[in-house]
Amino acid sequence: MKSAKQWILTDRTENIQKEKIELNARQLGAPKCRKLSVTKTTLRGGLSEGVEVVEINNGALSISVIPTRGMGIWKGSYRGIFLGWRSPVEGPVHPAFVHQNERGGLGWLYGFDECIVRCGLESNGAPGRDVVPNNMGEPTEMELTLHGRIANIPASRVTVEASGGAKPIVSVSGIVEETMLFGPRFRLSARISTAPGANWFRIEDEVSNLRAVESEMELLYHCNFGGPVLEEGARLVLPAVETAPRSAYRAEDVETWAVYRGPTPGFVEQCFWHVLRGDANGGTMALLRNAAGDLGVCIRFNLSELPCFTQWKNTAAEEDGYVTGLEPGTNYPNTRAFERKQGRVPRLAPGSSRRASLTVEVLDSARLVKAAEDEIEKLRGGTAHTLHRAPDPRFSA
Amino acid sequence: MKSAKQWILTDRTENIQKEKIELNARQLGAPKCRKLSVTKTTLRGGLSEGVEVVEINNGALSISVIPTRGMGIWKGSYRGIFLGWRSPVEGPVHPAFVHQNERGGLGWLYGFDECIVRCGLESNGAPGRDVVPNNMGEPTEMELTLHGRIANIPASRVTVEASGGAKPIVSVSGIVEETMLFGPRFRLSARISTAPGANWFRIEDEVSNLRAVESEMELLYHCNFGGPVLEEGARLVLPAVETAPRSAYRAEDVETWAVYRGPTPGFVEQCFWHVLRGDANGGTMALLRNAAGDLGVCIRFNLSELPCFTQWKNTAAEEDGYVTGLEPGTNYPNTRAFERKQGRVPRLAPGSSRRASLTVEVLDSARLVKAAEDEIEKLRGGTAHTLHRAPDPRFSA
Amino acid sequence: MKSAKQWILTDRTENIQKEKIELNARQLGAPKCRKLSVTKTTLRGGLSEGVEVVEINNGALSISVIPTRGMGIWKGSYRGIFLGWRSPVEGPVHPAFVHQNERGGLGWLYGFDECIVRCGLESNGAPGRDVVPNNMGEPTEMELTLHGRIANIPASRVTVEASGGAKPIVSVSGIVEETMLFGPRFRLSARISTAPGANWFRIEDEVSNLRAVESEMELLYHCNFGGPVLEEGARLVLPAVETAPRSAYRAEDVETWAVYRGPTPGFVEQCFWHVLRGDANGGTMALLRNAAGDLGVCIRFNLSELPCFTQWKNTAAEEDGYVTGLEPGTNYPNTRAFERKQGRVPRLAPGSSRRASLTVEVLDSARLVKAAEDEIEKLRGGTAHTLHRAPDPRFSA
Fold first, then answer.
1. How far is CA A58 from CA A36, A364, B295, B300, in A?
2. Domain residue limits at B289
3. What pTM, to 2 d.p., does this model score?
4. A316 contacts in B (CB within 8 Å)?
5. pLDDT tens digits, one per residue of A206-228
6. What b/e string do you get for A138-158 counting C-beta neighbours within 10 Å, with b at 16 or more?
7. Contact check, Cβ <8 Å, C211/B318
8. CA-to-CA distance for A260 and A270, rounded, in angstroms?
9. Residue C115 maps to which CATH number?
């Protein structure tokens, strides 16, 4: 997309960091969509001190992007429907307060409250020991922490673009650098866009390996939804051809993997690994729908970019974070050591890039939900679904 | 207390963070106490960059509260008498620079220079391994760090209140949230108050378990004093019925637990565990008095809230932090695993709260010191005092 | 040097932190050197948010000092010649984002992009376990992290001085405090100076042990240069009397220790330990020169202050940080435990100080490079050079 207009919010090399910005429809080139706006604020107080938030409001849908937290999407709403979840963490939390290697590598959870958070890029998934060559070429043990660093790195460049035309595509773009000496050197170029009045927003990412040596990379989109879509009887609809539980669950829990409980105090999280089917181009989708089937969130992505899909069922009490995670990824969120053995850790050649994109649609009628279900059924194309009753060694460590 | 007036200094949800505020006696509703004031400043430079300090000056006593460090009390003074200690750490240190799990979990000491600092809320005391159920319900080892997280979490809401009337109660209140997913979710509501011309200030805290599941909680007030109260021959006066050394000390050191050395280069810290007696309502007190008995600091608290009392003798050289800690707590500052075995880790039911309060009085005459000693003698009520010569397994791991 | 003029940029105790300052030649007392200036900026955006940079430009040479990162020298230039290196880390990185004990204690590498960075003060060198007495006097294991804390501590006082006179010495001074309770309490007083039109800058440091007990201290200057000085065929010229490889390298790599490769993708770093000879006062020097011998950087220091010299050859690809480190230190950057055994960890008596200084000269002609080579030859004075073919137990753990 060629941008007709661009605004710079942050540029580390130019020493720019705008505390506030407000762009209205006229400025964005769409005077007829009165409610179109892009607003940047810098949060103040407590653990949010200094966190930048950029909100795009297309008149129907609004989403809040957090440059300070690696261009994650904090939350959104569509015609009054809340998108996201109510985490016990009242964030967004500034990365300076997130100590990832505390609590046995689970410190990432100090800052986790986003609707969509990227996990990676060096690694994602469960914390655990891995052996990699160090700067002296010797195999060295290293403790990788939960879900990697990218969500706790502030973007070094943030811009807003409007494509021009009567219905401009409006986007927020950011560059996030995950680098160190003797370690990964990745550049994430993230773009989050929507159009006036649309029921969707799109994430288009490119991860570049800036090193002169090949590098492993993992990327997973942790897309998290609580109510109103998630509720007792809500269902996950997938073009799945294979599904396995992460751990040994009760038979009825495995069989009802697609169905959600209501908020359940003391509920212990469950995860399911899925293999999805896509169309000829790899296009696929996942649908989370409410019990009545008149509200849903649909995520579209491509299996050539994100071949693995993980479902996280955390139907604990509201106070403890009632949520489900829909997680398209380059891998399943096991330890990197396990994923490597399964051949699921992509390697990026020197100077090369890998793209991933994701479109989230809000479906606010039975008709739209049904259409998505039909589309998923068509994607599956009558293929049998293998449901493993017990953890499968290809998926679970 | 109903507040006649309130000023908001910080509110994360309203995006308020006032860099500066100055309230005078007139504004606080007490025009006749000319010197009454509340002042907020934001510190600049070095490790203190961005640290908020709220000073209440009642005309005779002033105390500095640090919202950025969990509403701790940095230091104070009463009619020229310094309250606090001269830590080797020249703080207050912004939490972004405190890495608690460095140095085997002792990183909390990078930021420790307060007169009163809360230790907790998930745990306090010595760093150490504990086994707790993880998010998958499986027992998991976790390394707990020294004295927990609460002192390194910035308050998300800070207000000043004045109760009205000729001698208004003036207070600073703050909300500090210690939360994460799959871990504790506590809200500390702290209030620090004093009255015009008073020789006291009061801490009134409420800790709420916001989870839908029962949670362990530990809270300890690390109240630290150096000179002028602490000096060679200073004494700790307690209504103690039982006292035990933490480690094996020389017999004379155990016998003189109540008496302090002067600054002693190379002195190795000593701790004593005390069981105190209170009045019918649980009210009790501890008095630190100087050698001459004409200066003292008295801490009043309630054994139903804070049943354990620890004395920390760190009479090292001035340069190394000549100080004693008087530490009323829900528990003794051992590892949580040990305290749990001894039945001293409170459990908070879902949604429930626990209160604790503490009043610190400065006694600047022999008369006042004598009155406090008499009161303590009365509290003890002639009960025998058991002094253990060696560490006791009920108190020391 | 007596300062004729002084400007305070930062003072924690006075609550001063100037976001910006610009001093011109007239203000600095040298109206005839039109291009003399000192400029302070505060960086904005990404990982650099809030980092202070003070640039001294003497008309020919400019250097950027980073108070926020322990008064390190980020980069410089002399008549268009770049001084420093192109680290994969695009910094300078604010210490709040550097988690030193991640990745097995290598987290320091998240922020490493300086031309000159101090390593220390409690320890420097490789991360590793050490046993030291804890606050209870008991030997305790502690994991020390790579290169210590000093580079990630913001200066608490920063001033600019100009000595007066037609060719004033212009300097930036800073105080950096590395302190904690029950641990080190060091004060680094750093001064970086130059003169109008000079081809040199000087670092004059004093490290004081503020404790009342003796303390171990380690200090190393990690001086890092990439192109244009470093290139294929560049050489390190040293008055070395003994040289040993850190690890087992190929014979040809050991023999060509003094010669540099061009950027080599996948190159694994090599280190050499050197014992240098100095003049009667201990004065010595190291020269890095380009292949043609018409460009060089010379570092002068004193063996009584910095007896050990380490050469770090990291001729990886440009993208991975093509660089060599010239590292005068109180010790070699092995683990502190190893250096202690070798008697190379200085001990500072209570209240005492240790000084170190370093002068960096840029030599931009064959004549100047030749003069430096001759001076080094003279320093060596015909002494034989022992080149160890294999790691030597006095130098390598």
1. 5, 16, 67, 58
2. 5-387
3. 0.97
4. 212
5. 999 999 999 999 999 999 999 99
6. eeeebebbbbbbbbbbbbbbb
7. no
8. 11
9. 2.70.98.10
